[in-house]
Amino acid sequence: MDVYRAAPADTAAAATARPLPWARWALLGAAGGAAAGSLVAGAPSGLASYFARQVLTPVRERPQDLAILAVVGSGPGQEIILPATAGTTAPGVYSVYFDAGAGHARVGEITFHSPREGTVQRKVERVYAGDLSRAVRGYWGGSAYPDPAALGLASEEVRIAVEGGEAPAWLVPAAGEARTWAIMVHGRGATRTEGLRAVHTARGLGLASLLISYRNDGEAPHAPDRRYGLGMTEWRDVEAAIGYALAQGAEDVVLFGWSMGGAVSLQAADQSVYRDRIRALVLDAPVVNWMDVLAYQAKLNRIPETVGNFSQWLISNRAGRLLTGLAAPVDLKLMDWVSRSGHLAVPTLILHSERDDFVPYGPSAELAERNPGLVTFERFSTPGHTREWNAEPEHWERVVSGWLARVLGISRA
After folding, report:
1. CA dist., res. 139 & res. 285, Å (int)
2. Which end of the chain is more exposed for a tag (fewer CB within 10 A), N or C?
3. Residue 413's pLDDT band (cuts 50, 70, 90)
4. Are 400 and 349 in contact (CB under 8 A)?
5. Is the Cβ–Cβ distance between 4 and 241 less than 8 Å?
6. Please, are residues 411 and 401 in contact by the beta-carbon 8 Å criterion?
7. What's the distance, CA 351 to chain centroid?
8. Pair 338, 345: CB distance under 8 Å
9. Are 289 and 360 in contact (CB under 8 A)?
10. E strands, 142-212, where?
């Protein structure tokens, strides 16, 4: 097992979809004590602090909100019957996790869809863990594979020194010598399995792939405050990963980022001491403006606009730390890449669905419009968040491979 120690250094839903009674929010606001009461008061402030903490606090256990209605057959012919939703009826390859995430099955082709009964039947391509035939509830996921071996690829488990300890990562070597490495940065509430969707594409271009973990994701060490920095702190773990790649002989890197991993990658490209070694960014459904995402989520959860704005204030100001639990405020304006479009200095490809139900695609498209010399935007129509590859893998891989080959100057047969 390889361990690299770096030199000391100088993004699931944001809130419940069903609003609780205002009285309960008032109690949550009062729970901060006299000091909190001197800062804010009443039910709206309680709701704002609760919403802010929901955004910033890692969730360790996913709700099993998907009923598994039936499992038909066994072995290669096994199929699963699920409630018909926008996600479960989308084409492509996905995962059903069950037994509190300990069980994992990859599902594919739709074999029967009954709008009248509200059900969908899909093929089970592989059960990686657990007894699917006994499962009754689970949750739907876009990380279709559990590890590089499931893709038929050899890998090495390495550990990268980060603040507070070591972060595990998968290193998937290139077929030959690789001067450029792809570093895969997953999103909020996800793990390094999210980046497996891009490994074959990177390998086809001659790139080695490093699929990293970072603070608060359940594999890497916690941040001291056990709160997400929404990209403002996590980029240092990406910097450590770049340092590892360079120490192993890489000359430069490409950062792949999904959802909040996009925000993390953008901060690394802006602030890291290795920013001149970052050749390109490939961002899937990225958060390029947290203020827009937070406002969208507040509206989706029927939170009044003034309360949503106050939650942003709590996150971004030192006076809000008592209620958010943050060690330091998060500079939301610094992570508004629409307003800061001229500061982006790295060739960037953004792939984003117009039907994204968590991170609206509008800011991604606007960033490309404001900085057309460096930013390329590819629109998808896939339902769900970060599901572009799942529903349209050939489209996704063709766009990424073609764009990266041009940016990196790779000639393809």
Report:
1. 21
2. C
3. low
4. yes
5. no
6. no
7. 13
8. no
9. no
10. 156-162, 165-172, 180-185, 208-212
- pLDDT tens digits for 287-299? 999 999 999 999 9
- What is the model's pLDDT at position 61? 85
pLDDT digits (tens, 9 = 90+) for 3-15: 433 333 333 333 3
Mean pLDDT (the chain, rounded):
90
What is d(CA 341, CA 374) in angstroms, rounded to the nearest whole number?
A: 10
Which pair of structure tokens corresponds to residue 261? 């991993």
Question: Comparing C-alpha atoms, which of 229, 350, 211 is closest to residue 284?
Answer: 350
Coil vs helix vs strand at 224:
coil
Length of the chain as a residue count: 413
Cβ–Cβ under 8 Å, residues 353 and 285: yes
Q: What torsion do the CA atoms of 322, 324, 330, 331 make, to the nearest 10 degrees?
A: -80
How does DSSP classify residue 184? E
Instruction: Measure the CA dihedral 40/42/44/47, to 10°.
Output: 90
Whole-angstrom distance, CA of residue 378 vs CA of residue 396: 9
Query: CB neighbours (10 Å) of residue 282?
Result: 28
CA end-to-end span of the chain: 36
Q: Compute the half-sphere exposure of residue 127: CA atoms within 13 Å on the CB side of its CA.
A: 20
* Confidence at residue 60, expressed as pLDDT on a 0 to 100 scale: 81
Work out the average pLDDT over 304-327.
Answer: 94
Is the per-residue pLDDT at 18 higher than 80?
no
Check residue 24 and give its pLDDT: 29
| Residue 223 CB-density burial (10 A; 0-12 exposed, 13-18 middle, 19+ buried) | buried
pLDDT, greater one: 278 or 28: 278
Contact partners, residue 31, CB within 8 Å, separation at least 6: none
